[in-house]
Specification:
Blueprint: H1 2-27, E1 42-47, E2 50-52, E3 55-59, E4 62-68, E5 77-78, E6 93-98, E7 102-107, E8 117-122
Parallel strand pairs: 1-4, 3-8
Antiparallel strand pairs: 1-2, 4-6, 5-7, 7-8
Bound molecules: copper (II) ion.
Length: 123
Protein backbone atom coordinates (compact mmCIF):
# COMPACT_ATOMS: atom_id res chain seq x y z
CA UNK A 1 0.00 0.00 0.00
CA UNK A 2 2.79 2.40 0.88
CA UNK A 3 4.58 1.52 -2.35
CA UNK A 4 1.35 2.15 -4.31
CA UNK A 5 0.92 5.64 -2.82
CA UNK A 6 4.57 6.39 -3.52
CA UNK A 7 4.02 5.33 -7.15
CA UNK A 8 0.97 7.56 -7.53
CA UNK A 9 2.79 10.53 -5.98
CA UNK A 10 5.69 9.99 -8.34
CA UNK A 11 3.32 9.91 -11.33
CA UNK A 12 1.63 13.11 -10.21
CA UNK A 13 5.03 14.75 -9.75
CA UNK A 14 6.07 13.72 -13.28
CA UNK A 15 2.81 15.10 -14.76
CA UNK A 16 3.20 18.39 -12.86
CA UNK A 17 6.80 18.74 -14.04
CA UNK A 18 5.78 17.95 -17.64
CA UNK A 19 3.02 20.59 -17.58
CA UNK A 20 5.42 23.12 -16.05
CA UNK A 21 8.00 22.35 -18.74
CA UNK A 22 5.40 22.75 -21.49
CA UNK A 23 4.10 26.08 -20.29
CA UNK A 24 7.66 27.28 -19.80
CA UNK A 25 8.68 26.38 -23.36
CA UNK A 26 5.52 28.09 -24.65
CA UNK A 27 6.38 31.34 -22.95
CA UNK A 28 9.98 31.31 -24.21
CA UNK A 29 9.07 30.60 -27.85
CA UNK A 30 10.80 33.14 -30.07
CA UNK A 31 8.35 34.97 -32.33
CA UNK A 32 8.33 33.84 -35.95
CA UNK A 33 10.17 36.36 -38.13
CA UNK A 34 7.97 38.24 -40.58
CA UNK A 35 7.74 36.58 -43.99
CA UNK A 36 7.71 39.93 -45.76
CA UNK A 37 11.52 40.21 -45.78
CA UNK A 38 12.50 41.44 -49.21
CA UNK A 39 14.94 39.06 -50.94
CA UNK A 40 18.22 40.47 -52.18
CA UNK A 41 18.09 41.87 -55.68
CA UNK A 42 20.67 41.35 -58.43
CA UNK A 43 21.96 43.77 -61.03
CA UNK A 44 23.09 42.87 -64.54
CA UNK A 45 24.73 45.28 -66.94
CA UNK A 46 24.63 44.84 -70.68
CA UNK A 47 28.00 45.97 -71.89
CA UNK A 48 30.06 45.25 -75.03
CA UNK A 49 27.27 43.00 -76.27
CA UNK A 50 27.33 40.77 -73.22
CA UNK A 51 25.23 40.28 -70.10
CA UNK A 52 27.43 40.75 -67.05
CA UNK A 53 27.41 38.76 -64.87
CA UNK A 54 26.16 36.02 -67.18
CA UNK A 55 24.45 34.28 -64.28
CA UNK A 56 22.78 35.74 -61.21
CA UNK A 57 21.03 33.94 -58.38
CA UNK A 58 18.12 35.42 -56.46
CA UNK A 59 15.40 34.16 -54.17
CA UNK A 60 11.84 33.71 -55.35
CA UNK A 61 10.08 37.07 -55.24
CA UNK A 62 13.34 38.88 -55.95
CA UNK A 63 13.93 41.37 -58.71
CA UNK A 64 16.71 41.49 -61.27
CA UNK A 65 17.56 44.87 -62.79
CA UNK A 66 19.31 45.20 -66.14
CA UNK A 67 21.06 48.33 -67.34
CA UNK A 68 22.09 48.87 -70.94
CA UNK A 69 25.62 50.26 -70.74
CA UNK A 70 26.11 50.06 -74.51
CA UNK A 71 25.24 52.71 -77.05
CA UNK A 72 23.27 50.11 -79.03
CA UNK A 73 19.80 48.99 -77.94
CA UNK A 74 19.36 45.49 -76.50
CA UNK A 75 16.57 43.33 -75.14
CA UNK A 76 16.26 40.94 -72.21
CA UNK A 77 14.07 38.18 -73.58
CA UNK A 78 13.24 34.89 -71.86
CA UNK A 79 14.02 31.90 -74.10
CA UNK A 80 10.75 30.37 -72.90
CA UNK A 81 8.63 33.48 -73.32
CA UNK A 82 8.22 34.24 -69.61
CA UNK A 83 9.34 37.86 -69.89
CA UNK A 84 10.49 40.32 -72.52
CA UNK A 85 11.89 43.77 -71.95
CA UNK A 86 11.28 45.06 -75.44
CA UNK A 87 13.86 47.59 -76.61
CA UNK A 88 16.21 48.82 -73.89
CA UNK A 89 17.96 51.88 -75.26
CA UNK A 90 21.38 53.12 -74.16
CA UNK A 91 21.50 53.85 -70.43
CA UNK A 92 17.96 52.61 -69.94
CA UNK A 93 16.91 50.07 -67.37
CA UNK A 94 14.60 47.10 -67.23
CA UNK A 95 13.65 45.01 -64.23
CA UNK A 96 11.68 41.82 -63.72
CA UNK A 97 10.46 40.13 -60.55
CA UNK A 98 10.71 36.34 -60.43
CA UNK A 99 7.99 34.69 -58.36
CA UNK A 100 8.67 31.08 -59.32
CA UNK A 101 11.91 29.18 -58.56
CA UNK A 102 13.77 27.82 -61.57
CA UNK A 103 16.52 28.59 -64.06
CA UNK A 104 15.62 31.22 -66.63
CA UNK A 105 17.76 31.51 -69.75
CA UNK A 106 17.42 34.74 -71.70
CA UNK A 107 18.87 36.39 -74.78
CA UNK A 108 18.88 39.61 -76.78
CA UNK A 109 16.56 39.49 -79.78
CA UNK A 110 18.59 42.11 -81.69
CA UNK A 111 21.94 40.36 -81.53
CA UNK A 112 21.89 36.64 -82.12
CA UNK A 113 25.66 36.54 -81.56
CA UNK A 114 25.22 37.68 -77.96
CA UNK A 115 25.66 34.82 -75.52
CA UNK A 116 22.60 33.81 -73.52
CA UNK A 117 22.60 34.42 -69.79
CA UNK A 118 20.70 32.95 -66.85
CA UNK A 119 18.78 33.96 -63.79
CA UNK A 120 18.62 31.24 -61.15
CA UNK A 121 15.68 31.65 -58.78
CA UNK A 122 15.86 29.63 -55.58
CA UNK A 123 13.24 28.94 -52.92
CU1 LIG B 1 21.75 43.07 -77.91
Amino acid sequence: MKKYILGISLMIAVVVIAIAACSKSDSTNTPTPPTTNKPADAAVSIKNFAFSPASVTIKAGGTVGWTNADSDPHTVTDNNGGFDSGTINANEKYSHTFATPGTYTYHCTFHSMMATATVVVTN
